[in-house]
Each structure stands twice: as C-alpha cells, then as structure tokens.
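Same chain as my last thread, 710 residues:
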Amino acid sequence: RDTDADDQFDCVELLKPLDYQSRYGHGTNQVVLGPDDMLYVVSGNDVAFPEGVAADSPYRDPQDDHLLPEARDAVQEVRVGHILRTDLDGERWEVIAGGFRNPFDLAFNSAGELFTYDADMEWDVGLPWYRPTRLNHVVSGGEYGWRWGTGKWPEYFADSLPSTLDTGLSSPTGLEFGTRGNFPSPYRDALFMGDWQHGRILQVSMSPQGASYTCEYGVFLEGGALNVCDLTFGPDGALYFITGGRGSQSGLYRISYDEADGAAAIEAAVTKVPEDVNDDLVKRDQDAAAARDLRHSLEEFHQRSDVSAIDLVWPYLNSEDRWLRFAARLAIERQQPAQWRDRALSETRPRASTAALLALARLGRAEDQSALLSALDRLPLESLHTSELLDALRVWELSFIRQGPPSVADRARAVARLDGLYPHSSNYANRELCRLLIYLQAPDVIPRSVELIRHALSQEDAIFYSQLVARESQGWTDASREAFFDSLLAARRYQGGHLFGDAMLHIREDAIATLTNADKLHLQSRLDQLASAESDRQALPQAPFVKQWTWDELVAELPRAHQGRSWEQGRVALAKASCVTCHRIGEQGSFTGPDLTHVGHRFDERALLESIMLPSREIDEKYRLSRYLLDNGTVITGRPASVGANVLTIETNALPTQTIQVKRDEIEQTSQAEISPMPSGLVNVLTLDEILDLIAYLKSGGDPRASSYR
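reply #2:
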C-alpha cells in the first residue's frame, strides 16, 4: 500500500498464502478491487482453496459428478479455477464461484456485474469435451463446469451456468470495460479483451437478457507481433496495453481518443435509431435491471439459512430464466432439507419440479432416492421441451452419482421410463440417455448407440458414444461389434489436438480389452487393420539432409524474407521440415503442438527463426517436459500423457509416440526438463530460400496476399 500518497508502495503484507502446485501457469492471476470495496482474486485450476475459507461461501465443495467417469481421469482431488472475495485487510475469505480452467482477469461493468475470460484446453480440440475460450458472467455460487481430463461438463447441465460468449481458440489476457476510460459510445459501454495468441484486442458489446447478458464481439485492434499480455485504462482515459511474453519483444502502447477529430466521424458512422425502437431498448434495459435485482435478492440466501426463504424463493424455481432458476435452487439448497423436501417431491410444474429435485439429489441423502425417482417418473417426458428433458435427465444422473446405485426395483422403473426415448430427436438428449441407459444396463442400448455412431453428424458425436460403449463387455451382437470396429477404422480420418491421439487410443484399448478370444478371432481382419494403421501413423518419412545451418548464417539473411518470397515453396517447406506433423497453420497440419495460424501476430521474423533453430531457449510451459527421478535411480524425461490417482502415463517420445507407465509412489522427485519436445535441426533439410519462404509463410499466417509475396 501507499500510505503517504507519494506514489511509492511503502507497506507490503501477506494477506493469504495460496497453494499453487504446478508449472503450467494456472496460478493466481489477478487481484481486482470491486465496486463494493472488496478484493476479488482469480485463480486457475492449479490453486487449491485456501485454508480458513468461509464455510458459508456461495461456492462449496466441487465434485466431478460424472455418471460414467473415465478411469484415466482419476486424480487425487478436484481442483477448479475459482474466484475469491476478501476485505481489504484479508480478514474473511469466500469462494464466490468456480468451475473455471484458467481465467486471467476480472472486470465489473457499470451495473456492478462481474465477468471473467476463461482459457480453453486447446489439446482437446476435436473431442466432445472441448470447451472454447469463453467469457463468463460470474454470479454468486456460479458453477461453470470445468473439470479435469474428459470430465468437462456440457453447458446444458442444469447444475452449471453457460458461457456468455465463446471466442474459439484464443489465449485470454487482460479484461477492461470502457466505462473506465473516456472513449465515446459505443466504445464506452464495450468490454475490451486481450487475446495473446491471435495478437489482438477484442471489443465485446453486451445486451441485457433476463438476469444475464448476450454478447457479440469484433476485433478492436490487431497487428503483427501484437501479443497482448494485459490492458487497462489510465487516469487520462486512454487505453494502455503491454505486449511480450515467452522471449518476444515487449512494448507498452497507448490508444487515446481525439475528441476533436473523433466526434464528427462517430456522428457520421452511427445509424440514427428510430424513436419507437429507442423506447423498446429502454424498456428492455429496465426489465433486465429488474431481473438482475431479483437475482441479487435470491442470492442473499446463498450464505444464510432462513425459514422464510423457501416461500420467497420457490416461485422462481419455475422461472424461464436459467440464471434465476440457478439462483433460486442454490438458495433452496442452503435451507434445512426437512423444511422443503416434501414440497420438492410433490411439486407438479415440470420446470420447478426438476429444479427442486436437482437440489434434493445434490444433497446426496440415500434415504430420499426412491421417493425422488418416483417424482421423476411423474414428469411428462415425451412432451417436455428439450431443455426441460435435459434437466430431468441430469437429476436422474445426480441421484445415481450422489445418492448411490438404485435398488433393483428403482432401476427397472428407470429403464422402463427412459428406454422408449432413445434414440431421441435431440442430439444432447441422446448423449445423456446413452449415458443413463448404459449405467442402468438397459437392453439393446449398445446396438442403438452404435447406430448413432454410424450416422453421427460430427466426429465429436461419434467419439462421445464410442467412449461410452467401448468400455462395455455385455449387450453386444456380432453385427454391432463389426459396425463399431468399422467405425474405429473410419475414425482414422478424424483430426484433433495434442490429446486427440491418446483419446482415440484409449477407446481402441478399451474396446479390445472387452473382447473374448472368440470375438478377437471373429474380428481379426479389423484388428489387423487398426494395428496396421497405428504403425503407418508412427512411420515418419525423412527429407534428405541439406546443411547444418547456423544462427549467424540465417539471421543475416532474414531481411530477404520480407518480399519476393514464394507462397507455394513456403507451404511445401512447412511439410518438408515436419512442422505440420505437430502444428497447424490454417487448414494444414495437426493440433498436437501450438496452432501457428496467428504466430506472426505474436512474433517477428527474428523470433520465429529463433524458435525454430533454438527451441529450448523459450519453452511454452504447457509443452515443457518433466524429469522424473524414480526410487530405483532411473530417470525418465517426458510429458504426462495421462494422470491417474496412482499411475502416471509418461510420453517419452512424440515422433513416433512412445509411452511408459510409472507408479506415483515410485517417483522420488519431479523437476522441469530444460529440453524442448520440439527437436532442433529441423531446417537442416531445407535450402536457404526454402527457409526464408518458410519464415514468410509463418509470418503471413499462410495468406498468399501478404506483402512478403510481392
């Protein structure tokens, strides 16, 4: 703190130690002062809740809550990105929301509503559990569904809240509302978001919708080597941002508004809004403000037990607004179950019934299960809106997860109630019905699921069902086995991120593990084709050696990469140097390593050459290898491909893939390896002109219209 107003910090004190146990950068990212004069602290998923956090925190005790979890995802504890709130003296700490991956920053809008920008897991691209980088509206007790590995929740789960805006593959950094600056409308009401990966600042416009918002976004600023690390508005009203990171050139920039020149241009650009439309917008904003105020009144019961809360909150379990239902349901959960259990079981309105039963299921009391399942049976599932059906299916799942396996009679009743719905016209309903019916061991669920794989409209759908049925040993027919293994052969054309190959390998391993000897004999030709395909994938053709290039030789030639280059030769060089084996640029290549499509927006030509020739100088922490010292003295270097509660699967070679399993209790010490997984010398198979064409291709993002090709 600056206690004597001399612009120098003269008081430094530790408010709270936060337990960070990783090296991937998913730590404590930002501290922001809220409009309530409280400190808000945002942390990634490698930070545990601190000791002494308030027991009545709005967000408590996150669980994986998956009906059919992937065993390889098993970890020792559930850690999620979260947001803490504390007073200026750090006396009381609360967790207000969680279920994030690695949110970088926080920002409050003019209404005092909180937002964060959460990172995707780009290694999951192409898999059904991939979640794009997203802007989240953060509310009291908000659950946003990020979990480890394959366990990420779909956003239609009723016990979570959806994304407010998806921005796809991005690297979220700074976040700031224009209300802190002196920019005119529409910039004044916009949210500005830094995207390090694409070298740009996004401008988000928000429209109130019920108790939350909808958003649209566009590019406010972008350019070459504009890897934005953070941004803020200064006391002069200008937007300041800083660039750099991972060894690249850093810089501080300012964007200011020239009122004299800007007013006329804005006046000319803004379309005049008809008066009647303006009236509609005013009414919309008034209605939305009332809905947010109502949500806040419901949230007051998230941290206290009050018998009067039940009658006050209950009507909003039937709200069409998901954000109000979520706030109301959480308020009910905070009250004594004896005060509302019977009311939940007797509720007849479908939307209110599923919300109340969801609260009852989440309490995890086994003695309530049979009555809860009977209440679910009364719902008119066939006529429900898809969103209401999904809510009901989630209640069934949470009952089995938290209250335990059903009795024989309850199981039979659930199968009878759900079986006729599968397959459903809704893709998402099919996913949850498949999950439930496999858990309940319903007859013929496997052949029906295989048909969904065969007719899947996306690879993500096919992989979702494949992962579930692959682990099942019962319920197969010869025809369904044949069709399923044919689908695995067809899946060879699928593409995805760094973990995609592991996920598909696990599905194949699980499927083969369920086969009897007779099954293997029957499917021998298909199994041989799968094994042959894996061998072909691992075989990497080598281009002939040209020269052992040195840094000094090539850096002196870099000015020639600025013009007169060949786009086609650059594209060929990308493949010849094995870049596309791990990386993607545009529509070419793999998602195994970082996407290079916008790498030219982050790095200049010199930095690009350095990252190719000296890959170990700056290593992205997500791709850095680890060094494991075992209790028998063995040293293993690689990356953890799969992390289990007791076993690590370590990838010791990416080209071709080689793995080894190690028991966690055999590991004496883990440290960072200083060697990049990307080999050096890749350009030694290229001529000088090919290297310069490669640099130009990377800098341009593969755009043949770039100035380097003139």
